[in-house]
Amino acid sequence: MKILIVEDERELLDAISVSLKKEHFVIENATDFYTAHEKMLLYDYDCILLDIMLPNGNGLQLLKHLKETGKSGNVIIISAKDSLDDKLKGLELGADDYLTKPFHIAELNARIKAVIRRNRSNGKDTVEVGNVALDLNNRTFFVDKEAVALNRKEFDILNYFLFNKNRLVTKGALAEHVWGDNIDQVDNFDFIYYQIKNLRKKLNQANAEIEIEAVYGIGYKLIEK
Amino acid sequence: MKLLNKSLLHLSLWMFMIIGVWSVFFYFNMLNEIKESVDEGLENYKRQIIYSVEKDPSLLKKTNFDEGFFAIRELSEEKSLRGKDTYIDTLMYMQDADDQELELEPVRLLATAFKSNDRFYELKIINSMVEEDDLVKELFREALVLYLVLIAAIIFINSFILKRLWKPFYLLLNQLKDYRVGSSDKLPQAPTNTKEFNDLQQAVTILLQRTIETYRQQKEFIGNASHELQTPLAIATNKLELFVEKAGLNAEQAGNISEVLDIIGRMVRLNKSLLLLTKIENRQFFNNRPVSLNKVVHQSIGDLEELAAFRNIEISVQETAEMLVTADNALAQIVVSNLLRNAVFHNINYGSVAVFITEKSIQVVNTGIAQALDHQKLFSRFYKSEGHSQGSGLGLAIVKAVCDLYGFSLQYHYDEKKHIFEVKSS
């Protein structure tokens, strides 16, 4: 699958593309308005990461052009501008998601996968790894076709991990995803730990072929057994 | 004390003294004037009597004042030549219209000498004088009336003319009292042609403009700085996350990186909060529509449920009505969730959080540290209660900013070992 990253900040562009290559995406870059414009019109991408503030122009304009030519590339706006106005305008112009800088790599992964899945699946949206299946529409979880009850947070955590299979998910990224924006409190990490512990117990009891392992003290990683 | 009353007080004291001193002078002057005029009258009588005596010597027999106003007595030549005209004040028994019986009354007496047919006589003429105590009484009364009339006049002038003169001043003052840098868009104005007030207004305007400019620059600076920090923070986070994914770190190195990531995380949250605050203060939220806070509360509680359960904190909601406010949905959520999060985070294990919603107010009551928080600093930026150094210290500042934006009142009090935050819509 091909992804175009439109971002004028070199360092950030590199970091994103390194990460996405690990997910086996094919990556193309554009660091200014004209290059991005050309590439967007010439080729088809499964997903376009679009920065709004670009040299020579505005990312929202690119989005407009793209939609005018009838291309459907899934667009995720990544911007340092957390203004609601831009967010609404972007989504109105046909962007599929909006991610504010700075973000966690795990979050970006999850967003890209969600967007690609959403636009590809026809009503049915299930993530399957080994003998487990997570139904995103009905928010249900199956191991060997047997339903396993998860609470809301556990479901979100598992979903996040499945979108980041084999990747490190830091505690901070996890807390932010499951919790929302403003988690400043250390005791949240205890809570995350507690949730993971419960989740692991449930996975074990159901003989799931996935495992959440701790990575140093930094975070967790979901792997297939 | 109001300026009006103060000036009145000063004026009345000075007026009292001036009128008092003036009355004393006036009294003595008046007395002198009366005596002079009486003396002139006596002098005149003297001439008439001496003239009459020439024609009617029988008058010389009138040796006392029985029924007249003069008395004649023979005198030795030596004595009469030595004598001069003398005026004296003395007392005599008289009966006035208002007296029941004879009373000693003040009289002016002229004693003189004259020669008639080579014989010398002493002549005493009297004229009744004003009664000094009557004069004093009368004068005191008049002075008092004058004083009261003057005070009344001053009050009248003060309340009508001065009030009108000071009107522009009070107009300006009231506008200044309501003026808030950053949220008031009109500078205080009070049209007047009084030079002093115009000067004052000009000085105030210049001062305010400078303050507004500084405020704007400061706001812009915070906004720009936070904004510019976003990308470097993004790079730092992502590079470190990628770095950790590479195998071959030992536990200590990983631990260090974990700490750095946490610290960057804190910076990110701080930065986001600052950006949000700037945005609220810049009024960049205009998507206002009716929002049911009840719904927002339930949604927020849903997000907090698991954490509260983890710490055995009981959350309850009591609604007597639906609280509808016109606000931006995202901001309403921020207010409610910040308050609820605080209530949970700053709680004790096995504590409680109770939410009360009425038509006009929402109250969040929670257990926590057994001590009231600092009312003064609670809502200011970067306030942190003891033992919570990890927080950004901006959560309540944001709540306050949103409340200010929409004109809600935000109150905190500590009652029966519970912390109570209350948002009231107007």
TrEMBL record, chain A:
Gene Ontology terms describing biological process: regulation of DNA-templated transcription
Cited CDD domains: trans_reg_C
Cellular component GO terms, alphabetical: cytosol; protein-DNA complex
DNA-binding region: 124-224
Residue numbers of 4-aspartylphosphate PTMs: 51
Keyword DNA-binding: yes
Keywords, ordered alphabetically: DNA-binding, Phosphoprotein, Transcription, Transcription regulation, Two-component regulatory system
Domain Response regulatory: 2-116
Domain OmpR/PhoB-type as annotated: residue spans: 124-224
Signal peptide segment: none
InterPro entries for the chain: CheY-like_superfamily (IPR011006), OmpR/PhoB-type_DNA-bd (IPR001867), Sig_transdc_resp-reg_C-effctor (IPR016032), Sig_transdc_resp-reg_receiver (IPR001789), WalR-like (IPR039420), WH-like_DNA-bd_sf (IPR036388)
Keyword Nucleotide-binding: no
SMART domains: REC (SM00448), Trans_reg_C (SM00862)
One GO molecular-function entry: phosphorelay response regulator activity
Protein's name in the database: DNA-binding response regulator, OmpR family, contains REC and winged-helix (WHTH) domain
Protein's organism: Paenimyroides ummariense
UniProtKB/TrEMBL annotation, chain B:
Alphabetized UniProt keyword annotations: Kinase, Membrane, Phosphoprotein, Transferase, Transmembrane, Transmembrane helix
One Gene Ontology CC term in the entry: plasma membrane
Alphabetical list of Gene3D superfamilies matching this protein: 1.10.287.130, Histidine kinase-like ATPase, C-terminal domain
Chain ranges of the Histidine kinase domain: 224-426
SUPFAM superfamilies: ATPase domain of HSP90 chaperone/DNA topoisomerase II/histidine kinase (SSF55874), Homodimeric domain of signal transducing histidine kinase (SSF47384)
Protein name per UniProt: histidine kinase
Transmembrane segments: 7-28, 144-162
EC number per UniProt: 2.7.13.3
CDD domains registered for this protein in UniProt: HisKA
Domain of life assignment: Bacteria
Catalytic activity as recorded in UniProt: ATP + protein L-histidine = ADP + protein N-phospho-L-histidine
Database matches in Pfam families: HATPase_c, HisKA
UniProt organism field: Paenimyroides ummariense
Statement: the UniProt record of this protein carries the keyword Ribosomal protein: no
Gene Ontology MF, one: phosphorelay sensor kinase activity
Xref: InterPro entries: HATPase_C_sf, HATPase_dom, His_kinase_dom, HisK_dim/P_dom, HisK_dim/P_sf, TCS_sensor_his_kinase
